[in-house]
Design goal:
Distance between the termini: 65 Å
Number of helices: 19
Largest sheet: none
InterPro entries: ARM-like
Structural class: mainly alpha
Amino acid sequence: MASWQIQAAKDPDTPPEILSSLFKIPECHDFLIENPSAPEGLLAALGVKEAFTSDPMNRRISVAKVLSEAPTAEIIERILTWTEGSLNVLQAGEDPSFVDHSRLKSYFYPSAAMNPKTPVKYLKEFAKSGDSTTIFYLAPNPSLPISILEDLAEKLLRAETHDERHEFSRVPENINLSSEYLIQFSKHPAHYIRAAVARNPSTPKAAQVELADDSDSYVFFQLQANNSLCEEALLRMCNRNKADIRNSTQWVDDYFNNLRKKTLGGGYSEELKKLVTSHDWPK
């Protein structure tokens, strides 16, 4: 492969017919995906190879990864536009019968749903899609309109079974969710819902303090990882004894070591730092 081929794959001024010819070179695929001049049929073919190849040794092109990590709305819109339109894969020599359009959309939409750069018009569409996987990844997106976020929160509150809750279970992770909802979800009977609240940096102090006494290990380990953990909640966690923690998890040493590291590495009081470095801690 010549260096000019890589440069041509990157260059928006490269003629479409040359870009299509570069499809045969796997090293050019990532650049072709990001090139705004790449023909839609070429992008579709790349997407088909990523979504449907059954050969684990085949070098897959992660269009889904591009969607989830794209730094601009333009890249996202360009890819979503061709998934919504006619997938002209003949241009790249693929058999069109190989393409299941609805399956292709369901493969890529969750990736776009999680990206904060995805245009709001698509986020609104995803919320109405009825696809549980898409909504699962959409829920924590900080760019989601508040009205949609609150609608998803209400659906989670009404859900009674795990299957009903699952697609809405990441709603409490959204940093824009109101304190009122976060407090409600901090008392939720499902531990994974409380854990989502525990890791949310927007969770109010009152809810953090309550979660500090939670009996589920997944919840309190998620709370330990919260970069906005308040001192009162941290103190309550530090004051729990080994026997109490042992009832919830075998990782007792990890629990207290994590607390020590967090206390010493964060902006907490000297009194709390003395506690976690004392010889008689933990009890």
